[in-house]
Amino acid sequence: MATPRQKTAARQNIKKARKVQSRRAHGESIPKRSRGLSTRQENRMPRSTFAFPKERKEPLNDARHVRNAIARFDQVEGVSDAERDAAWRRIRAAARKYGVEVTARGWRQLMKGGRTGRSRSRSR
């Protein structure tokens, strides 16, 4: 449940976003604040750039995205352990390439406390 403070903040954010969107629609040049990938950029990336290529999840094109892929590893659903093994190898290779330090010894360490980790503990 969201608190009243969170709801107020969300309403203000939506109001700001609508205002900026309207100004852009009327021709004003307002730069985007996000440094992330646009949908177009992500769709143009080859599958080999993703940790989970079949699902096209977790791009590994720079150090920031590699760190994000590690942080969100436990949130990817609907993949087998073999796919997770392969994704972890791709993440480790990308981490070496971009100089990202990985402290986890394996992907199973990342699963503790995540959505997938909870469902695994129930099934055992």
Please summarize what this structure is.
The chain is mostly helical and 124 residues long. It is built from 6 helices and 2 strands. The longest helix has 22 residues.
Number of helices: 6
> Based on CA inertia axes, which overall geometry fits?
extended
As an assembly, this protein is single chain
Cα radius of gyration in angstroms: 18 Å
What is the overall pLDDT average?
85
Low-confidence stretches: 115-124
How many strand units?
Answer: 2
Structural class: mainly alpha
Elements, N to C (H/E): HHEEHHHH
Beta content:
under 5%
Give the helix level as a range of percent.
40-55%
N- and C-termini, Cα separation = 29 Å
Query: What is the spatial order of strands in the main beta sheet?
Result: 1-2
Largest sheet: 2 strands, antiparallel
Helix-strand blueprint:
Blueprint: H1 4-25, H2 39-44, E1 50-52, E2 57-59, H3 63-71, H4 81-98, H5 107-110, H6 115-123
Antiparallel strand pairs: 1-2
Characterise the protein shown here.
It is built from 6 helices and 2 strands; from the N terminus they run ααββαααα. The chain has 124 residues and is mainly alpha-helical. The chain has a domain at 38-114. Strands 1-2 form a two-stranded antiparallel sheet. The two termini are 29 Å apart. The model is unreliable at 115-124 (pLDDT under 50).
Keywords:
single chain; 124 residues; mainly alpha; two-stranded antiparallel sheet; extended
